[in-house]
Design a protein that fits this description.
With about 130 residues, the chain is mainly beta. About 10% of the residues lie in helices and about 40% in strands. The chain is globular, with a radius of gyration of 14 Å. This is PilZ domain-containing protein.
Length: about 130
């Protein structure tokens, strides 16, 4: 990955109670990339998603050990519990073995800073929903 413009962490990430994402879709061709993933960490600039291999929709992605082909893709996702759609750019991916993949999405160019800060205040922290 090197030192691309996508390889920067601007704001500290916070662990959140998993937020269900009903779908992750490409903004380029509107193809669905994944279903039923979840946000596990968030910051005012990006979201870290956990995507299970079986929830990847294209079979070519389910059969690979890396999702790096998605880096740089513009995507949008639907946060089920909040009835909210967020768009952004996939900045990195990481294989987690049998658990699936982490997919980092930077949404800082897609929404104003005050909106992103408000979203961070609304996302539940671990234990808040128990």
């Amino acid at each position: 990955m090197g030192s691309s413009k996508y390889n920067r962490r601007v704001a500290p990430r916070t662990e959140v109670s998993p937020i269900h994402i009903s779908y992750l879709t490409s903004l380029d061709d509107f193809a669905k990339i994944a279903k039923n993933s979840e946000i596990v960490e968030a910051s005012s600039t990006g979201l870290l998603l956990l995507v299970k291999r079986e929830d990847l929709i294209p079979s070519a992605l389910r059969k690979t050990l890396t999702l790096d082909c998605l880096i740089g893709d513009r995507v949008f996702m639907h946060l089920e519990e909040m009835n909210l759609e967020i768009s952004g750019v996939i900045t990195r991916t990481q294989l987690l073995g049998k658990k699936g993949f982490y997919v980092a999405v930077d949404y800082s160019d897609e929404a104003p800073e005050y909106w992103r800060e408000c979203l961070m205040d609304l996302l539940p922290r671990p234990g808040e929903l128990d």
